[in-house]
Amino acid sequence: MVKLVLTGVWVCLVTLAAVYFSVQMATAPVTDPNAGKTPAQEFVMGEPINIPVISNDGVSGYFLTKISFMMNKDKAKDLPLPLVELTTDQLFTLLVGNRMIDIAHPNSFKLDEFRSDIKKNMNERLGGDYIASVLVQQIDYVSKEEIRSNSSGPVKKNMKPVKIVESDPVPAGAEKPAQ
Description:
This protein is an alpha+beta fold. The protein has a domain at 41-165: Tetrahydropterin Synthase, Chain A (2-Layer Sandwich), CATH 3.30.479. Helices cover 39% and strands 24% of the residues. It contains five helices and five strands; from the N terminus they run αβββαααβαβ. The protein has helices at 2-27, 73-76, 83-97, 111-126, 144-151; strands spanning 41-44, 49-55, 58-72, 131-143, 162-165. Strands 1, 2, 3, 4 and 5 form a five-stranded antiparallel β-sheet that branches. A hairpin with a 2-residue loop joins strand 2 and strand 3 (58-72). Helix 3 (83-97) packs across helix 4 (111-126). The radius of gyration is 29 Å and the shape is elongated. The chain starts with a helix and ends in a 14-residue tail after the last strand.
């Protein structure tokens, strides 16, 4: 008889718990699974690129650049063009063709405008919204005279490039592509 009563109490408790949790789940606010979901982004490391600065007398110096990208992870897999070569071409266009940086006044350089131009032009050439953001890791200028003075005789460690931009930090948790 005691077993029968204990079994009845156990069945009642399980039934009450099940009803309670089903009512709680039915009245819980519905969350949109796509709300707040940003597309997964992938960090694409850029390569160091040297761009000559050409004046009337020939080459007067070199820009030393390194630019990386944050890209939509799904779209990065299906890139129609090689990213490194496209980046090199875009940097030549902006730094040599448009002369965005005035060597005499490196502080007048507008980094945000430079980033937006790279992002806009790269997305246009790729034919979609591939580039999410542009990370400038290095833009320095080394004059031809400094290179020559450093190359004549013993190697000196005192060559001082003109620092145009300080490095952007690599985003924390950014996934690096498999190479």
